[in-house]
Amino acid sequence: xxxxxxxxxxxxxxxxxxxxxxxxxxxxxxxxxxxxxxxxxxxxxxxxxxxxxxxxxxxxxxxxxxxxxxxxxxxxxxxxxxxxxxxxxxxxxxxxxxxxxxxxxxxxxxxxxxxxxxxxxxxxxxxxxxxxxxxxxxxxxxxxxxxxxxxxxxxxxxxxxxxxxxxxxxxxxxxxxxxxxxxxxxxxxxxxxxxxxxxxxxxxxxxxxxxxxxxxxxxxxxxxxxxxxxxxxxxxxxxxxxxxxxxxxxxxxxxxxxxxxxxxxxxxxxxxxxxxxxxxxxxxxxxxxxxxxxxxxxxxxxxxxxxxxxxxxxxxxxxxxxxxxxxxxxxxxxxxxxxxxxxxxxxxxxxxxxxxxxxxxxxxxxxxxxxxxxxxxxxxxxxxxxxxxxxxxxxxxxxxxxxxxxxxxxxxxxxxxxxxxxxxxxxxxxxxxxxxxxxxxxxxxxxxxxxxxxxxxxxxxxxxxxxxxxxxxxxxxxxxxxxxxxxxxxxxxxxxxxxxxxxxxxxxxxxxxxxxxxxxxxxxxxxxxxxxxxxxxxxxxxxxxxxxxxxxxxxxxxxxxxxxxxxxxxxxxxxxxxxxxxxxxxxxxxxxxxxxxxxxxxxxxxxxxxxxxxxxxxxxxxx
Length: 623
Description:
Layout: H1 2-21, E1 26-31, E2 39-44, E3 60-65, E4 86-88, E5 110-112, E6 134-136, E7 158-160, H2 171-178, E8 193-196, H3 209-216, E9 222-224, E10 251-257, E11 261-265, E12 270-279, E13 283-288, E14 297-302, E15 308-314, E16 323-331, E17 334-345, H4 366-370, H5 374-383, E18 390-393, H6 423-426, E19 429-436, E20 441-446, E21 456-462, E22 468-472, E23 479-482, E24 490-497, E25 507-511, H7 512-557, H8 559-565, E26 572-574, H9 583-590, H10 593-600, H11 605-610, E27 620-622
Parallel strand pairs: 2-3, 3-4, 4-5, 5-6, 6-7, 7-8, 8-9, 11-17, 18-22
Antiparallel strand pairs: 1-2, 10-12, 12-15, 13-16, 14-15, 16-17, 19-20, 20-23, 21-22, 21-24, 24-25, 26-27
């Protein structure tokens, strides 16, 4: 009896100590994860609880705090729980979580924080949890994931970020997943790493390019809770699956300017043009280098090739408008600037006094930029005195580009300003395309004032490009064929006397697809005309040939009787006196064909004997 009383007292004492160590608002339980071991589980689910309990047993391996009113967790709440392996805090009211709170949990394997109001997560705290395999952040208010998170998720094989407010993911994180070779968390899944990304307001632009590519061409060791992700914005792609969108890769802005220096006379109108490329399309803005206010208007436009242009118009320029103008292109990847110098002079000559007159300074003129459309050609040619960047070609259009020709020592390769005596020669007129395929064209022009020794130059470039290529035409020729063009591409081409600057009327814009279409139409017309001509001409030719053959055959059949008939000759009696009635008819009927042949021969004594004697003067006969 005494022994049983002692055992009972010891058991009651142990139960009392165990009950005293468990928090009052929580329940404790023991389980055996392995034979001969015990693990403590603490469950706290009081809906009125606002802070985590402070007296959690240190031997706790699994802590569940669920469906409470806890909004924050003090930094020292879990510091003594060095054996904690599972921390589940789903569906509370957590708005923030500090990295200090998770410090020291080196044995932690699962961290579930789903169903809270977290707007951020301390990703750097994962570095102190090397055994963590599961991280559940489902159904929170996360708006972004930092790029540094890629350094800390390499060991996580189950990550749920679904039902948050994520619009994009960093490229570094996508690259980490694509190359991830971690051990799967679930024993029954031998090859998959599980990701949950669905139900987020994804913005389908270039920033999502890597992610879309990752989902469409995913690694075989990656599995998604829901693989059919959808775009949320822009509106044109709302609800479209990732597998159905085509996105462009993000690109930093690049600025293109048609000229680097503009010289113009006082009181003229100047247009400064600046273009940019980039993904997304950069925003263009103008400002002056000296900080002065812009005295003009800005017009924005987008060309057919996707390039964004900004045109700064300066009407009636004065000396105050001289200076450096800065064009800035900016998108979220960065910004780029370009400078254009505007010089105002008081005379019509805009030559640079510091350089030799007429020498080309190697800068691009507005000629190739102005010819983007007919309205701007004249403006740029008139307001600038510099010349285009040229490349030399050999008649094939494949010449090398020479961006800076100012150092060229060959005088024939330099463009000079025209003199009054050269003005008629430079007036190339009626430039037109007369042929022929989608990879070559034939140009023709008129130059009535040109001499047989005049050499023409053909300058051409792809529509929108700055650098132009040059073809020198043989003296006296006004037609040339340009080869090596791209199909279905718009080009600008100018024809001028070699060494001079082309004018507006000497430039045209054409498209190789239009040329090919026109050539095909002309060939179709030729085929139709030839077919109609054959239909009409062949039967007519047959009729004429048959008629000629018929007449030929008829002539052959009736030739002999006709010869006999033509042997007879009609004789008439010509005499000054009266002729006996009926004598002539009687005479002709009396003669045979042989006698008529004799009458045609020279007169002889036989003829005299055959002539009858009639009263009066004798008659004479003529054939």
